[in-house]
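Side project, low priority. Logging it here so it doesn't get lost.
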Amino acid sequence: MAPPLPLSIFIIAKNEADRIGATIEAVRDLGDDVIVVDSGSTDGTQELAASLGARVVHNPWPGYGPQKRFAEDLCRHVWMLNVDADEVVPPDLAAEIRGLFAGGEPPCPAYRLGIAEIFPGETRPHPWAYTLWPVRLYRRDRGRYSPSPVHDRVDLAPGTPTRRLRGVIHHFSVRSLGDQLDKLNRYSDQQADDLAARGVAIPTWRVFVELPANFLKAYIGRRHFARGVYGFLTAMNYAISRHLRVAKHYERRVNGGRRPGR
């Protein structure tokens, strides 16, 4: 077995005991510093992560960007890899990352990794799966996660070059349609909060077009049509979540900026 790289791997989690085991097992031999920042799990996530060799730290949920910045500050190495608790680094991508360090310092300060969603019933990304390419492997002195509570991205120093790796992370984001919709509903609350905090006003006419426009964006633009019935249903969930973001934003405007009670 090859020795671990001088690489910190950080994961944020809450109630991910059913998924985080595969996440940690895929990377625990890749780097010698695996950190899990937990925001209050009640399902044994912390204990499972610790049993697999991760360093587990509790931090109350401050939003996506701040939580990942908190995790960055815990990392021991200059090089950091971020993986979410519902993602798995496959062996080919792990080998590709190892290859970057084969001669010492990787040649580029930041790398974009593909993230391909895998739906229930699938074991690998569909050939037409929509794939995001965010920066996930980077030097801590060239980039940090955005402080935004809703925008999950690394802000790089001006002029920092990036390269794409060939391998893709396997993203098992959908436990079930209901769980997905619950998650998206909570996220739409945070998005509405963020819009209010930044003083952004979305035009009222978008209430009428957000759902159909975003269904087409997911079903056609992101090729969910290639995934059969499940693709149609997940495209609908995505469209509903985008509609809820605008609807909640409108509701707060007509309520004088107040977030309505449940």
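Brief comment: Helices lie at 20-27, 45-51, 64-74, 91-100, 177-197, 206-221, 228-254.
Revisit when time allows.
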